[in-house]
Amino acid sequence: MRYRSHDEDSVRWDGFPFRPGDIVISTRSKCGTTWTQMICALLVFQDPRLPGALPELSPWLDWLLVPHAEVLARLERQQHRRFIKTHTPLDGIPLDPRATYIVVVRHPLDMAVSLFHHSDNIDRRRMAQLLGAPPPVDASRPSPSIHDALIAWIERDVAPADALDSLPGVMWHVGDAWRRRHEPNIVLLHYADLMTDLGGQMRQLARRLGIAVPEERWPGLIGAAGFDQMRARADQLAPDPVGILKDRNAFFREGRSGSGRALLTDAELARYEQRAAELAPADLLAWLHR
């Protein structure tokens, strides 16, 4: 399936020349993409001092703000094990047996809250300029509160492919990966597990990727993947190779879970759970919501 938005197009994956050992990181927005890219960088290079900015080491292939040929050329020049970012679900990219696909998920309510704040941090005029689109029109109406925006997000009824960051889009992306979870080159990571057991999750991912890490290196690698250390290196790690973020430090806002539930009343939370149950099977929801 082809997925398109104003700044992404999955057609850029067509004919991609995979190499043995390639890693593809597939996530929804604000679900731990940059965190997982950093973890992969630390496992591949085994040194907290990365040899370059993270967006250059792990480019976003289907992002229209960087010319396709430029991204392909950068990946072609790389001699290290490649790890590539995408927000496209697995059914929209080639599934090559030589590659490992990591799908990262987060509680959808937390993702929606984080996306709300992230949207305010994007320079829309700069993005429009890079896309060759008309500049955005200044809105005369005040923006909705985060609570009202979250309620609207829960209730929005849209085809998943038309809005992948909607609740239906999130469930489509995660559900597709969930159905493939027993395939040998598919790895599912949960944001909550990274928060509660970062070291264990990194060790487990290293095993799945076939990467041996000397024991003495683990403390430094795990420390470098912590939220505070990543935020302190925002200039190098934030996904902003073309300068569309107003504040790179703000990209690493809180890095916690539970903020979505805290905004809702019991009745509103029940409504969210009803909507989620309409979109995904119970076993997936039990894993996703824990």
Can you tell me about this structure?
This protein has helices spanning 33-45, 54-57, 68-77, 108-120, 124-131, 146-155, 167-179, 191-196, 198-209, 218-224, 227-232, 234-237, 248-251, 259-262, 266-279, 282-289, and strands spanning 23-27, 83-86, 100-105, 186-190. It has 290 residues and is of the alpha/beta class. It has a four-stranded parallel sheet, with helices on both faces. Helix 4 (108-120) packs across helix 6 (146-155). The radius of gyration is 19 Å and the shape is globular.
Structure classification: alpha/beta
Kindly, what is the distance between the CA atoms of the first and last residues, rounded to a whole number of angstroms?
30 Å
Radius of gyration: 19 Å
Mean pLDDT: 94
Looking at CATH, the homologous superfamily is P-loop containing nucleotide triphosphate hydrolases
Order of helices and strands: EHHHEEHHHHEHHHHHHHHH
Strand content: 5-15%
In the CATH scheme, what's the topology name? Answer: Rossmann fold
Query: How many domain units?
Result: 1
Strand order, largest beta sheet: 2-1-3-4
Low-confidence stretches: none
CATH class: Alpha Beta
Largest sheet: 4 strands, parallel
CATH architecture verdict:
3-Layer(aba) Sandwich
Gross geometry: globular
Number of strands: 4
Q: How many DSSP helices?
A: 16
Helix content: 40-55%
Which helices and strands, and how do they pair?
Elements: E1 23-27, H1 33-45, H2 54-57, H3 68-77, E2 83-86, E3 100-105, H4 108-120, H5 124-131, H6 146-155, H7 167-179, E4 186-190, H8 191-196, H9 198-209, H10 218-224, H11 227-232, H12 234-237, H13 248-251, H14 259-262, H15 266-279, H16 282-289
Parallel strand pairs: 1-2, 1-3, 3-4
